[in-house]
Amino acid sequence: MNAPAPAPIRAMIAPVTPLQQNCTIVWCARTLKAAVIDPGGEVPRLLAALKQHGLTLEKIWITHGHLDHAGGTAALKKATGAPIEGPHREDAFWIDQIEASGQMYGMPDARSFIPDRWLEDGDTVSLGETEFEVFHCPGHTPGHVVFFHREARLAQVGDVLFQGSIGRTDFPRGNHAQLIEAITTKLWPLGDDVAFVPGHGPMSTFGDERRTNPFVADDVLKARA
After folding, report:
1. Is the separation of the CB atoms in 65 and 86 below 8 Å?
2. Cα-atom radius of gyration of the chain, to the nearest Å?
3. I need a labelling partner for 203 at 20 to 30 A (CA). Which of 14, 88, 149, 195 fits?
């Protein structure tokens, strides 16, 4: 009997900022090359975590341009030189507002930035010897993207989907219908077994949300159709 193959990636969640946003450090298990997804703030703590696990930061990935997800991006790049990938360019107007938002929400160190690479639906991003798929999932913000590792069955969904809820759509250029469409046509086809890290709160699986989420459960959407 063959032993199971080792997982291609590993990940740890590091909630940051007063909004407890789920920043995630994910790394290639073979090379220890890491990406920080959504460094909203507390950059020294993120750098310490990278050092503690013996990781080399290779990429900074951004799901969307809101302050709590992207406010520490510029500082992390300055400290490491790692390139910034994401979000989709439709979120540029949110990134431009980061410094003003930081002043309002008590995060004065937050800075705007220009990504080294804007991402599009269908792109891939590499990390060490592995890669993630990119899905453009607008609705919470117009340029929101999701990162998905097919072999590991893991998605980082930002503020698209939560355990028992979905992202807010009352911000500028939010769109509830777009968000529901993105969840049901981009995420659900990936499989019920996919575990996801939301932007806030506990992890869940797409299957659990299809059964129980009061906003996007299959039965709920069928009743509204």
Report:
1. no
2. 17
3. 88
